[in-house]
Amino acid sequence: MDLSIVVLSWNTKDLTKQCLKSIYDNVKDVAFETIVVDNGSSDGSAEMVAREFPQVKLVRNSENLGFTKGNNRGFKESGGEYVLFLNSDTIIPPVDFSPGLPRSVPGTAQSQLRKMVDKMRGDKSIGMLTPKLIYPDGEFQDEYYRKLPSITQTFWVYLAPLNKLTHKIKFLRRRFLSDLDSNKSCYADDFNIPGAAPLMSREAHEKIGGRDENIFYWLEDVDLCWSLEKAGYKLYYLADATIIHLGGQSNAMWEDLRKMLDFRRGYVYVFRKHKGKFQGFIIKWMFILNALLLVLPVFVIGLFVKQYRGKAKVFWQFVLEFSKD
Fold first, then answer.
1. Residues 98 and 121 occupy one common structural domain
2. CA distances from 55 to 17, 22, 147, 213 (A)
3. What are the pLDDT digits (tens) for 42-58?
4. pLDDT-based confidence at 108, cuts 50/70/90?
């Protein structure tokens, strides 16, 4: 079998349905199987999959095991030479889809997933590949192809209010976020492969031992990139294959404190793992001091701006919890 598609679902019933429908409607030229791992959804997601997509191999977890454990569980059920880990908030477009351009004659073009599989099969040095991710309106999602993190990049991209400045100033944006030309395929030497639709070879996944289950969700994509590079594999961006990604649908359901803690815990863990304890220590205290500096001004702003009310409490709770780690 060419391909296994692992879709992780947590309370995204309608999105999961849309994703699965796009797979079966638009992928006809690849021998594939689809595995849906339901992470303890309470919205009827698993029941919908069993009812409307009986050809799917459904794995039901009794609770939300997180992104890494859920995807590892899906991999164990897979048998394809290549494995596509597809977020439930993605859509596979028709063949030769390109925003603003006419499609080619039906039956003469390759599906998006065929292009991805063929590229990896033709270049065995690639351990993981990403397609071009776009929003439904066709805009390229450049923020998902960020430079691989460093202490300097963390300072400019993840600490407020500097992060706002970095996003607005072109020089800083290109220096610390992304300078990828979305229309040119290339090896991903210095930027991150997003976690929304990475294609991995079975060999590479097994060589690094799968995803690190010490990470619940955030930064597992960076960990994968660094782990694969250490194992001798290359990463690749394939501009010729396009997948629509809505973005942030599951984590939007989490409360602010949970998101802050999970993201920064994952961030510090990955730094300690790949860059050493000293850099991990610096990153941890950068986050703590930044949150401390924000408590008072955010509290004052919250007295006048409704949307900021309660944010200062979140920052303070974060400092208390995160300093214990």
1. yes
2. 13, 14, 39, 29
3. 999 999 999 999 999 99
4. very low
